[in-house]
Specification:
Elements (H helix, E strand, L loop, with lengths): L1 H17 L5 H14 L5 H5 L5 H18 L2 H13 L3 H16 L4 H19 L7 H11 L8 H12 L11 H22 L17 E7 L11 H6 L4 E6 L2 E3 L12 E6 L1 H9 L3 E3 L14 E6 L11 H4 L1 H5 L2 E6 L2 H6 L5 H6 L14 E6 L1 H7 L6 E2 L13 H16 L5 H14 L5 H4 L4 H20 L1 H9 L3 H20 L5 H18 L4 H11 L10 H7 L6 H26 L6
Antiparallel strand pairs: 1-4, 1-5, 2-3, 2-4, 6-8, 6-9, 7-8
Subcellular location: Membrane
Keywords: Membrane, Repeat, Transmembrane, Transmembrane helix, Transport
GO molecular function: monoatomic cation transmembrane transporter activity
Length: about 600
C-alpha cells in the first residue's frame, strides 16, 4: 500500500512538473504538501530538503555567479573573443565554445548561456555568420560543460547529496571529469558537424548584420486628422504595404476587409518584420499605439532594441500592463514576437487568437522566449541590461561592470570552489563565506547577489524530499525488481543503458534534477540486486540527466530558441543523434571509470 502510494505521488509529481502553465515553484510546494498529507513523510522530513546543505550551497553558487557577472568577467572574455571574430570566424566559434565550456563547468549553465548570448549575436553581425548556426552549439556546450566538474550543474549536486543519504558517499569534485571532459569535447565537435550536415542555412538567410526577419505583432492607430480616415483598408495594405492582420472595432478584432472603410482612432493589428514595424513608425497618418505615447520632441532621441524573456524571468505569465512595463523600465514596448511553434502548440499562446478574443496587446501574458521590440533612451536600455528578468539582444552596450574587481571576483569564486571541493569545510559554509566576501569587497551589491532564481532552490528542496519518500517507502526496490529481468537478456551494460534512457526520457517533460532523483533509487537497487557496485549506476544516471538535447525545453536551449529562429524540429534533427551518441559513450565509458564489481 505504501509503495503504491509513493509511486502515485511520483506520477503526480511528473505531471505537475510537466505542465508549463503551472509555475515550477507552485508544483514543487504542492509535492511537499502531498508527501505530508499522504503520510509518506513527516513535516520535518518533508521540509528538511529546503535546509539541506545542497540547497544552501546551490543558492550561494548562483549568488557567486552573479558576482562574476557584475564584475564583467564573462563580458571581458567575450570582448577578447569579438576581437578574434574580426580575423577568423572559425577560430572565434571554437574559442567561444571553449570559453562557454570552461565557465559552465563551475557555474550555472543557464547564467553562462545568458552572459555569452549577446557576444554570439554581436559576432554574427561582424562575421556574417547566421545566429542559427551559432546559438544551438552555444546552448549545447553549456549543458555539456556541466558534466565536467561536480559544481557544473545543480543536477550533479542533488545526485551527490542523494548518494550520500544512500550510503554511497558524495561525488568528488573531479570524479566526473574522466568521463565528462571527453564527453564534452566529443559532444561539442559532433554538434558543429551535425549543424553543418543537418541544419543547413535557410534560403535567403543572412547573418545578423541585418535585423532578423522575425514576425512581430503590434497595434497601430490612425493619428488625429489622418488623411486615411474614410479610405478603404486596401489603400493601407496594398498602397502602403502595411501587413494588417485585423481591425479592432468596438472592442473586438475583425478580419481585414480590403474594401472596409477606416474610421478615426481605429486600431489596426499589424504582424510583420522589424522593417515593417519601422516603416509604420515613420508614417504620418498612422502610427504605433505605443510610439504615440512618446512626446514628439523626444522620439528622435529614442533607440530601438530587442529583448527576450529568459526561462528564469518572473515576468513570464504576466502582461505588460501587470508589470507596468513603461513605469518600471522607462521604456515603451512597441511590438512582441512569439515563436510560431509555441503559438501553434498551445491555443492560449497564439497572439492573434488572443487579440481576436478581445485582449489588447498590453494585456497578453508574456511567455518564455518572447522577444519585445522596445524603444527608449540608450541610458534606459543600458539600465535594462542590469535587470535579470529580460535579456538585451541588441547591440546596445551593457552596463559598465565593475571591471576593477573582476580579478578579485575570480579569486573569491575559485577559492570558494576549491575549499568546497576539497571538503576543507562544509560546502554550504564555504559558499556563504564566498558570497559574503563578494559583497564585502564590492564585487556585487547585496540586491544583485540575492537576485537568484529561487525557483531552482525550491525545486531542489522538494525533489530531495521526494527522493527520500521513494527510498523510505521501498518504491525504488519495487521498480528495480521490474527492471531486473532485463539483466539476463542484455547484461549489466544493457541494464545501465536502459536506466539512462529512462532518465533522458523523463528529463524531457520535467527538469534534469527531477529525472535523476526519480531514477536514482531504481538504479541503486537494480545494481545491488545484481550484486554490482551501485556507484556506477548512480553516476551514469547523473551524467545522462545532463545529456538530453532532444527539445528546446531545457533552460539554456530555451534562451537561444527565439534569437536563433529555430523550429522545434531543428532540435530533434541535431539533438537526437547527439543524445544517442552521448548515450552510447556513457554506456561504455561509465563502467570503465567506475567498474561494476568492487575490487
Amino acid at each position: 500500500m505504501v509503495v503504491t502510494l509513493a509511486l502515485g505521488v511520483v506520477v503526480v509529481a511528473i505531471i505537475l512538473l510537466s505542465i508549463d502553465r503551472i509555475p515550477t515553484e507552485v508544483s514543487s510546494l504542492a509535492i511537499v504538501v502531498l508527501l505530508v498529507l499522504s503520510g509518506l513523510l513527516t513535516p520535518r522530513e518533508a521540509l528538511s530538503g529546503f535546509s539541506s546543505e545542497t540547497a544552501i550551497f546551490i543558492f550561494t553558487l548562483l549568488a557567486l555567479t552573479q558576482g562574476l557577472s557584475a564584475t564583467g568577467v564573462m563580458q571581458l572574455v567575450g570582448r577578447r573573443l569579438l576581437f578574434i571574430a574580426r580575423f577568423s570566424p572559425q577560430a572565434f566559434i571554437v574559442m567561444l565554445l571553449v570559453a562557454v565550456c570552461i565557465f559552465s563547468s563551475v557555474a550555472s549553465n543557464t547564467a553562462v548561456t545568458a552572459a555569452f548570448l549577446p557576444v554570439a549575436t554581436a559576432a554574427s553581425a561582424q562575421t556574417k555568420v547566421s545566429p542559427r548556426r551559432l546559438l544551438m552549439p552555444l546552448a549545447f556546450t553549456s549543458m555539456l560543460g556541466g558534466t565536467i566538474f561536480l559544481f557544473g550543474t545543480s543536477t550533479n549536486l542533488v545526485v551527490s547529496s542523494a548518494m550520500e543519504q544512500s550510503g554511497l558517499g558524495r561525488i568528488g569534485f573531479t570524479e566526473l571529469t574522466p568521463v565528462g571532459l571527453p564527453l564534452a569535447i566529443i559532444g561539442i565537435s559532433v554538434t558543429l558537424v551535425l549543424m553543418r550536415w543537418l541544419l543547413p542555412a535557410r534560403e535567403g538567410e543572412q547573418g545578423a548584420g541585418a535585423l532578423p526577419q522575425r514576425e512581430y505583432v503590434t497595434e497601430a492607430v490612425l493619428t488625429p486628422g489622418s488623411h486615411l480616415i474614410g479610405k478603404e483598408l486596401r489603400y493601407v495594405t496594398e498602397g502602403l504595404g502595411v501587413p494588417v492582420r485585423g481591425v479592432v472595432r468596438e472592442g473586438a478584432m475583425r478580419p481585414p476587409d480590403p474594401r472596409g472603410r477606416l474610421e478615426a482612432q481605429e486600431h489596426l493589428i499589424i504582424a510583420g518584420s522589424v522593417g515593417d514595424i519601422l516603416r509604420v513608425k515613420d508614417l504620418r497618418s498612422i502610427g504605433l499605439s505605443a510610439d504615440l505615447r512618446i512626446p514628439e520632441d523626444h522620439r528622435h532621441s529614442h533607440t530601438l532594441t530587442e529583448v527576450s524573456v529568459p526561462p528564469t524571468s518572473a515576468l513570464a505569465g504576466r502582461s505588460l500592463r501587470d508589470i507596468r512595463f513603461a513605469e518600471r523600465y522607462g521604456l515603451v514596448a512597441m511590438a512582441i514576437h512569439r515563436h510560431p511553434t509555441l503559438q501553434g502548440s498551445h491555443q492560449h499562446l497564439n497572439l492573434l487568437g488572443s487579440l481576436a478574443s478581445g485582449d489588447a496587446l498590453k494585456n497578453i501574458s508574456l511567455s518564455v522566449g518572447d522577444l519585445l521590440l522596445v524603444g527608449g533612451s540608450e541610458r534606459r536600455v543600458r539600465e535594462l541590461a542590469r535587470d535579470e528578468e529580460l535579456t538585451v539582444l541588441g547591440s546596445v552596450e551593457y552596463q559598465r561592470p565593475r571591471y576593477r574587481r573582476a580579478l578579485l571576483a575570480v579569486i573569491i569564486f575559485a577559492a570558494t570552489v576549491a575549499v568546497a571541493g576539497l571538503r576543507l569545510t562544509s560546502p554550504a559554509i564555504a559558499g556563504l563565506a564566498g558570497m559574503l566576501a563578494m559583497i564585502a569587497t564590492g564585487c556585487v551589491d547585496t540586491r544583485t547577489a540575492f537576485r537568484v532564481d529561487w525557483r531552482v532552490v525550491i525545486l531542489i528542496g522538494a525533489l530531495l524530499a521526494l527522493g527520500q519518500a521513494v527510498e523510505k517507502s521501498g518504491a525504488g526496490e519495487v521498480l528495480a525488481q521490474a527492471v531486473l529481468p532485463l539483466a539476463g537478456v542484455v547484461g549489466p551494460r544493457g541494464v545501465l543503458c536502459v536506466i539512462m534512457i529512462a532518465t533522458i526520457v523523463l528529463s524531457v517533460p520535467m527538469s534534469n534534477q527531477a529525472a535523476a532523483l526519480i531514477m536514482l533509487p531504481v538504479g541503486i537497487h537494480v545494481a545491488m540486486d545484481m550484486g554490482l557496485d551501485p556507484r556506477a549506476f548512480a553516476l551514469g544516471i547523473c551524467l545522462a540527466a545532463s545529456c538530453s538535447f532532444l527539445t528546446p525545453l531545457e533552460p539554456s536551449a530555451a534562451l537561444v530558441y527565439g534569437p536563433g529562429r529555430y523550429r522545434f524540429v531543428d532540435f530533434l534533427r541535431v539533438g537526437t543523434p547527439l543524445t544517442v551518441l552521448m548515450l552510447v559513450l556513457l554506456t561504455f565509458a561509465v563502467p570503465l571509470v567506475w567498474p561494476f564489481t568492487r575490487s
